[in-house]
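Table S2 (continued). Query chain:
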Amino acid sequence: FHSLNRGMNSLLLLLPLALGVWPCGAFMEDLCFEADGTPSNLFQNAFDMGCAYGDFTNKQCVAAVYAQWLNNTLFCRSTVHFDHLYFTAQAVGLTPDVAYLLAIFSGAMDFEEFNPVDKCGKQLPTSDATPPFNGMKRTNFETAGVLRHIPLMFHDHHCILSSMKSWAYDDSVPICSAAITTPKGGNFFTGAQCYSSDNWVTGPFPIIGNFSNPVESPLGDQILQKDSSETVYMKDLGDYLDQNDEYAQFSNGDTVHPDIVRMAFFLHSLTDKFSHYECEDAVASLMDGPTASGNFTLAMDAVECESTYHIMTHYWEVGFATIAPQTSTAMGSVYDELTEWIGKYVGTTNPSWLSGKDTLTRSEVVKILSEQVKLQDAGDRLQYLLEALDANDYSRMRGFESSRKCSSESSGVGRAVEGIALLALLLLAVVTV
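Corresponding output:
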């Protein structure tokens, strides 16, 4: 099934190295917006080519999907990480503000920050965006950010996810690089403090064939944001949000509560675990340690985790009559986790976050989202969700209110290009001859 690797032109093998990027995000940003706000599919060319669900044998399709991801300059968001989370949060009884803040911080984990646009293509104000935090970015191999998107198992246990959920409910729980703490009864994920920053977690991240990129991250406290002037750690999330209080506000101007951000981060990692299930469930994918020198190692299956197959599995997640198993699993699991969060925390600690509106059952939510995600046309997919919000008397996401009118001007807002357009197009040309 993955035999395409062995027959590819050598330039295709080397191209990801030249680009320095590869698709390691999950439930990728499928819904894009043109300069005037018109919705479009990230992988529209592949749809137009008839690239089928589950087909990895067509190398022209693989090249087209890869090139479109690398060549994209539009603002795009993930249907699962943003739209589905926003709808589900209201469906379980949370207010539109809490739903929106959960959605933007979930969406931001794949990037350095989340600067959304409205239905007219204009960038929303800073109060509707997130501050930067590159330490959790999907392509950050120097802060173990990648392990928040591919949370590898440790000795057959989901230690990264379980520790992240504990932290989501209790900020006194240490949030550590690769989730590794000082040992407690032989368990390196439940200690009271993070492992020594003098030690490292290292291992290869497979790109294609025998090529890989090294993950080399110091242990210790998980980094939230790092630039030339400062390093901010996740343990200081509340202070960082207060210092950047012009971002991510409630409708009344209050700054986002860190508990919302922690839950958003956990939900993103959880759904990414489902999206990467073939990579993570492979026998060769694991984290291990400590070694005699006190370091930890990681390994990822060279077939199930390599980037060409990886990005095709993301292409299949949205826009097909067949719903990918990881997509359907994510729908129900987010509903379950938010319901649990309300029962264990929100209902007693922050009841003002509850809307008081009628809720939907798990099966009702999954049915709505399943019908929506099967729609291939990006505009139809967005419109379906907006109408579902309207039909249940829920609020539309900020910037997509029915009362908002568009002028002839547009902002032309895009995103930072994660690849090099010329080389991406060259890839497409090479493998289609």
